[in-house]
Design goal:
- The complex is a heterodimer.
- Chain A is α/β, with parallel strands linked by helices.
- Chain A folds into 3 domains: about 1-170, Rossmann fold, CATH 3.40.50; about 190-355, Rossmann fold (3-Layer(aba) Sandwich), CATH 3.40.50; about 370-540, Rossmann fold (3-Layer(aba) Sandwich), CATH 3.40.50.
- Chain A is built from 23 helices and 20 strands.
- Chain A has a 6-stranded parallel beta sheet with strand order 3-2-4-5-7-6, sandwiched between helices. Chain A has a 6-stranded parallel beta sheet with strand order 11-10-9-12-13-14, sandwiched between helices.
- Chain A is globular, with a radius of gyration of 24 Å.
- By secondary structure, chain B is an alpha+beta fold.
- Helices cover about 30% and strands about 40% of the residues of chain B.
- Chain B has 4 helices and 9 strands, in the order βαββαββαββαββ.
- In chain B, strands 5, 6, 7, 8 and 9 form a 5-stranded antiparallel beta sheet that branches. In chain B, strands 2-3-1-4 form a 4-stranded antiparallel beta sheet, covered by helices on one side.
- In chain B, β6 (about 110-115) and β7 form a beta hairpin.
- The longest helix of chain B is centred in the middle third of the chain and has 13 residues, at about 55-65.
- The relative contact order of chain B is 0.21.
- The chains are: A alpha/beta, B alpha+beta.
- The interface of A and B includes residues 147, 179, 182 and 309 of A.
Chain lengths: ~550, ~160
Amino acid sequence: MEYTGAEIFVKSLLKQGADLIFGYPGGVVLPIYDELFKTPKLRHILVRHEQGAVHMADGFARANGKPGVALVTSGPGATNTVTGIATANMDSIPIVVFTGQVPTGLIGNDAFQEADIIGITRPCVKHSYLVRDVKDLASTIAEAFYIATTGRPGPVVVDLPKDVLLAKTKFEYPETVELRSYRPTTSANKRQIDKLAAALEEAKRPVLYVGGGMILTNAAAELKKLAHTIQAPVTMTLMGLGSFPSLDDLCLGMLGMHGTYRANMAVTHTDLIVALGARFDDRVTGKLDEFAPNAKVAHVDVDPTAISKNVPTHIPVVGDLKDAMKKLNAVIAESKVDWKTKHKPWLAQIDEWKHANKLEYVKKTNVIKPQFVVEEIDRVTGGDAIFTTEVGQNQMWAAQYLTLKRPRTFLTSGGLGTMGYGFPAAIGAQAAFPDKVVIDIAGDGSIQMNIQELGTAVQQRLPVIVVILNNGFLGMVRQWQQLFHGNRYAYTCMESQPDFVKLAEAYGALGIRATKPEEVGPALEKAIAARRPTIIDFVVDREENVYPMVPAGSPLNKMLLA
Amino acid sequence: MRHTISVLVENKFGVLARISGLFSGRGFNIESLSVAPTLDLTTSRMTIITRGDDAIIEQVTKQLNKLIDVIKVIDFSDEDFIERGIVLVKVNSEPNNRAEILRMTEIFRGKVVDVSTKTYTIEVTGAEAKVSAFVEMIKPLGIIEIARSGKIAMSRGKKTLG
């Protein structure tokens, strides 16, 4: 029996275990939409802008670990996905983006709604395909999911010309995918693990430096075991947050530009930094030459290009992080070292740093401090929620003041720093977990970058809560202007703003405004109880800054503390 | 330092764009590039001449390997290898310099592949140094046009890329 490309598309997705598509229809993908109409078990969420669809697929993937799927039409539909794809690429998030394309015979003719999306996205995908023959469609979809989810995960784009969707062939979905040119190293080399274990035995002041890889590989339990066994402190990158409990005694919090004092001091004084699924990003290292100056560097990563890219590595371990952690824990279990006492002086030093400079802000009774809102979110939810953020001050306060307990509960655009990410990502996470409380911590600037998805949340009855820390500024840029550009606030003030409460109501969502500190908790409780899409407009202290701050290009121990 | 890197890739459209895009996107330098299918028509062999310190070359080879369509990467610079390129040079041939042109061509073991009343076209193959030396020697005689290929390379002895 022969099927059309559109039928094969739907069958392949079902074979792949995908049951949810975030998408937006258009001319060339109509054959697929016709099949979706007949296939209710493959759900489709209609977005308001294609960028939103990709961020939703990304948020869905980050929240539950399964690959996210987006489907858009050709031309502008495809080009609108680029920021979403680049966001997923920088943070290694497994998504597959299907774009429509004009019929193969018209490709290159500047046809209506034609865009060379494979060319446009080439630098920001893990891989991409233009399917030119319906006979290749099923195997291409299988390869796309395989590549997106294995090795270092990432986005894969599959471009589907309309004639391929209409042509017919047999349906054979490959059971397994074998690619001679793509065989990611998944097993960590035992000899390198032994070296790492030996280095840990020798080290006096080790730090475990954990990135998003720990979350992607679901290895948080192994991390806890390692840290507790060897009594080593753990610091996390923005992407790693959630992989180790914030309130654990060994947790140093986030490191880097807006990291905690103790994390940055610990990294500056460590004699062994063990990077676990992290990539020494410039926002983490500060001035590279003075980063961890006394440390031996061990680096575990599935991607060989991450190793020795920014920081020379003494003990490289290429492999799946979970596999490496299991092997490391097994070697450590045989170790004769008295781990209980070995790092006592080091942990005492860290404790001193912890008390010398805590994360803090000046509480006020007449104005809402943005940090207070995050603390209240933490208190009201008990940390039992999925948080997303936009980008800027909102993101950093969320990273600093939320006490996260579990991985996959803090979704943020770390690498690309995409304003407008948080809200659609929250919708994607909520679609994955309809019963959970999902909160997007936003600024008044970034929420306006994808505010149109309020329509999606309302239509799908996804009770996402958007918390706007409304200071009427593009706050992080304003902070830099204040600190490094002589208080010249060039174009960072949005003098005209929508009334966010009315805006929410216009979309059929709930809108709440709070202007006094005592209103913060009740507003959050009301939003959580409502179980419907909600925007809370918290009018906050306008010129509050994020501290600590390591100015760009400075070493980590040169922090501005207030 | 100058490195000669051979890359075995899937012979699919777009692979060259992925490789050249990788070099331009990451600020790596390409001095020369040549591509052609191998005996197995599903694969192509690229030879890339690039420059960089050890850390950059390490990134170049790792990043090439990371591309999904790349099957194998060899940096020849640590081993004994053969490198060849070809140059076609069209030279102004006057009665008074024809003998000199032919002498140079002979010294470099080149061939005259085309002759007209006013021009000789000469083909020389060899490693980069030889080809460059020939061009330098012939320059004073009046080069009208020059076409140089990218380099190709192969290990000496038994070792192969594929």
